[in-house]
Amino acid sequence: MVVACAKRATEPKGTGYSVPPVEQLKGKATLASPPIVDSESEQGWIDSVFFLKPDLEGPEIRLSGTATWKGKPIAVSVILSKMWRKVQPQPDDPQLTVWAGRGHLAITGDEGERFVHSVFTRAGQLQKNRKPPEAVYFAVMALNSDPSQMRVSPIAMKLFFGEEEAEGVPYAEAYLNVDVPHRRLQFNEKATDYRTDLLKFLDGSVRTSADKTADR
Q1: Where are the beta strands (DSSP E) in 18-168?
Q2: pTM above 0.70, yes or no
Q3: pLDDT digit string, tens, across residues 113-126
Q4: How far is residue 37 from each of residues 33, 41, 65, 114, 200, measured CA to CA in Å?
Q5: What are the Cα distances from residue 181, in Å, to 102, 141, 156?
Q6: pLDDT tens digit string along 14-46?
């Protein structure tokens, strides 16, 4: 049986990257408290929205997200390096400017475990490891949005888990949308054919390496 892969409608045809336009992050209401985690999820997608508490002053960018799931608090933090490398537009994507970096998801405590469990539940999948890893490393690209302007502007990012070039090895991509002025953090699926491997990274069935993501 062949299962078709669903992709976001925002992905422009004929380009090398899937770009969620930064404009789509604008105009959202400011969050004043933790929302229900799937309250903004599109039908058929495993998306998560969090109330954002940013810490932009330390040696790393720390984005702490909190939400609720079935009446209980859940949480995840995104830790990003402040070292970004600007990549010039490529001939096949002349309208795309990218800033490349690295980071990890910090999944700790009961709230972090409940976040991972909520993703599995919404995906209709059985979680094998009940205790997820405390850190899930990724490479990251900010798409047409300069991370140095995070304090005042929404930033659209794409996360890369694992090694795309390694055949037979789990690999996944996801979107991360950061809107500091409106206290919003979104962790969204990119395409459904990444779902199985993304779940493996989140529950620790497959481990990611900080050393590997640093060189992407």
Answers
A1: 48-55, 60-69, 72-81, 85-87, 98-106, 135-143, 155-162
A2: yes
A3: 999 999 999 999 88
A4: 12, 8, 10, 11, 20
A5: 23, 21, 14
A6: 344 444 556 666 678 899 999 999 999 888 899
